[in-house]
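Much of what follows relies on a compact textual record of a protein's fold. With that in mind, consider the following protein and its fold in token form.
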Amino acid sequence: MSSLSNQLVLDLLQNKRYGVEYQPIVCVSTDEIIAYEALSRFYTATGESLRPDLVYASLHHNLLSLYQVEYEQKKIQLEHAPLDKTIFVNLDQDAFFASGVTGIENPFVQLIRSHKHNQVMVELIENSELNDALMSLSMIETLAAYDIGTAIDDLCNPKSMISVSVMQLVDVIKLDKHVVKKADDERFMLFTKKMIEFGRQSDKKIVLEGIETESDLAFARELGVDYVQGFLYKPQFIQRP
């Protein structure tokens, strides 16, 4: 993966050219928006969008800078969140541990616990790296100790690695958009349905991502997931100057 130039990253940090996209998470049975996922957005000095994955790839070269950006993003995401809806926020495990502070004194734990307008659900990405999976598990255990809800993201993505311990601890399972693309693959769907069955039997909610059409929504209903998310539903944007 490419990264951004140092000059562009420095401008981003100094001027906090950040924004948020709130993607609706919709109940399959009622069509009601029950939550939003807050996604980080970044901009150049001329207002052009920057790919978030490139921004984060660049920031991983300096974990303190990653921590600063991730913390500022979480502040914005919670401050502008639609009231009375659950807010899903992504939290990079490297940023979480970069402060060097663990337990209730961790800045992210304090920030989330101090937010009173929304229930906050922290998303963790299933990663193909074993060390990242172990860090995710440690972060989930910390969040769970202080009654902060957690969700696992990108399950069934071809590059993800399943951690049984992580699966057991989270409150919500989010199925990757790859599931929609593989709807006609019988073996793949057998695995997917077993993951849904596991979620059902362990009292977890299931979200299917990548819903772009009415036929995708019909597929989600057939699978029996609780919630859906995708471009079929119009997001909200917050952009800071």
Observations:
- The longest strand covers residues 33-43.
